[in-house]
């Protein structure tokens, strides 16, 4: 079954599976939502565009968004959410860009021990962190 993301007014994006083969020109997709309810999802000229494809489970929580098979709004938001819900994973790379989500809480990820751990490392060798970006910038200055 093909896994997709569909727009949702309360959750923004909702995960679903296509449970019946779709043929070009059909007016709807038959979907199963994560709560096991089925939904006839209108597509085509009178309906909505085809939904975005979901990434394989093995890529969920990836620390670099560019590693995702499908890079679109629902995939990015879901991946950031999964990482953010893990302890101390407020940073995610998107290539050479560091994405940070403010946890509105004090985290113990900035101490002297963490600075030493990132010192001398290449960006991407360790989990995404502002210290990795700083180390890379420092190396590039020399």
From TrEMBL:
<dbReference type="InterPro" id="IPR036961">
    <property type="entry name" value="Kinesin_motor_dom_sf"/>
</dbReference>
<dbReference type="GO" id="GO:0016459">
    <property type="term" value="C:myosin complex"/>
</dbReference>
<keyword id="KW-0518">Myosin</keyword>
<keyword id="KW-0505">Motor protein</keyword>
<protein>
    <submittedName>
        <fullName>Unconventional myosin-Vb-like</fullName>
    </submittedName>
</protein>
<dbReference type="GO" id="GO:0007015">
    <property type="term" value="P:actin filament organization"/>
</dbReference>
<comment type="similarity">
    <text>Belongs to the TRAFAC class myosin-kinesin ATPase superfamily. Myosin family.</text>
</comment>
<dbReference type="InterPro" id="IPR001609">
    <property type="entry name" value="Myosin_head_motor_dom-like"/>
</dbReference>
<dbReference type="InterPro" id="IPR027417">
    <property type="entry name" value="P-loop_NTPase"/>
</dbReference>
<keyword id="KW-0067">ATP-binding</keyword>
<dbReference type="GO" id="GO:0051015">
    <property type="term" value="F:actin filament binding"/>
</dbReference>
<keyword id="KW-0547">Nucleotide-binding</keyword>
<keyword id="KW-0009">Actin-binding</keyword>
<dbReference type="GO" id="GO:0005737">
    <property type="term" value="C:cytoplasm"/>
</dbReference>
<dbReference type="GO" id="GO:0005524">
    <property type="term" value="F:ATP binding"/>
</dbReference>
<dbReference type="GO" id="GO:0016020">
    <property type="term" value="C:membrane"/>
</dbReference>
<dbReference type="Pfam" id="PF00063">
    <property type="entry name" value="Myosin_head"/>
</dbReference>
<dbReference type="GO" id="GO:0000146">
    <property type="term" value="F:microfilament motor activity"/>
</dbReference>
<feature type="domain" description="Myosin motor">
    <location>
        <begin position="60"/>
        <end position="142"/>
    </location>
</feature>
